[in-house]
């Protein structure tokens, strides 16, 4: 029973990180109607930034997090202004292709700056351990859970109670109505990319603290993509629920099924199995809206 609860807790922590990354997917999708293929590469950059600020510059955790967020804000503004704004009015496929090109550029920059080598910063994080009976939560996992929950709560409050958040939600529903109300849509687009970069970078710092950083860390973006499909591509709340569900299921599958298979590895493909099942039986996800078009 203790082993099962340990898997559940670790899965919840992993699911909260998936939730952060998936929210970045949903925000871009709601504003531009296109999937941001580069979201996983924001995560990779975040992991390398965590290593740079924590290990290379020896900054405290809070200062490293703030510095990484500042870099994410600048990165989001530059990406939106230089690569995505010229694509306004272009077909959705063109925007998706631009994000694919962006992912290749970010991967190349990461290889150029950090060498693409494995980096780790386990020892520099605070040694906070929570024990409940025989159940223990490692410091990296506990910090990840705390940071993820705080960021998700801040985002939910931002979208619900701030003018900018409401403007983003309104733009996602009807861009023309928002423009008639005097809201600058390009500003909303820039803000959406900034938020996508921030949540990706924070997710990367958390994952880097748990498992280290390498270029393949960007592949976590595809797992977050599965979360988006499971929760519903237009639902932030759905991304939260689906992220936790997928994290827990992936961890439990790794704990119980991997030992039964020669070579294991089920955890790596489990999110994609879920994605295929969702696409076949419920294409709009668990909480997505079913769009009905009148002809």
What report would you give on this structure?
The protein has a two-stranded antiparallel ribbon. It has 295 residues and is an all-alpha fold. The protein has a single domain, classed as ABC transporter involved in vitamin B12 uptake, BtuC, CATH 1.10.3470. The model has no long low-confidence stretch (mean pLDDT 84). The radius of gyration is 19 Å and the shape is globular.
Topology, element by element:
Layout: H1 2-32, H2 39-56, H3 61-84, H4 92-114, E1 130-132, E2 135-137, H5 139-161, H6 163-173, H7 175-180, H8 185-211, H9 220-231, H10 236-256, H11 266-281
Antiparallel strand pairs: 1-2
Number of strands: 2
The gross shape turns out to be globular
Strand content: under 5%
Question: pLDDT under 50 segments (min length 5)?
Answer: none
SS content category: mainly alpha
CATH class, please? Mainly Alpha
Short description:
With 295 residues, the protein is mainly α. It is built from eleven helices and two strands; from the N terminus they run ααααββααααααα. A two-stranded antiparallel ribbon has the order 1-2.
Key terms for this structure?
11 helices, 2 strands, two-stranded antiparallel sheet, 2% strand, 295 residues, ABC transporter involved in vitamin B12 uptake, BtuC, mainly alpha
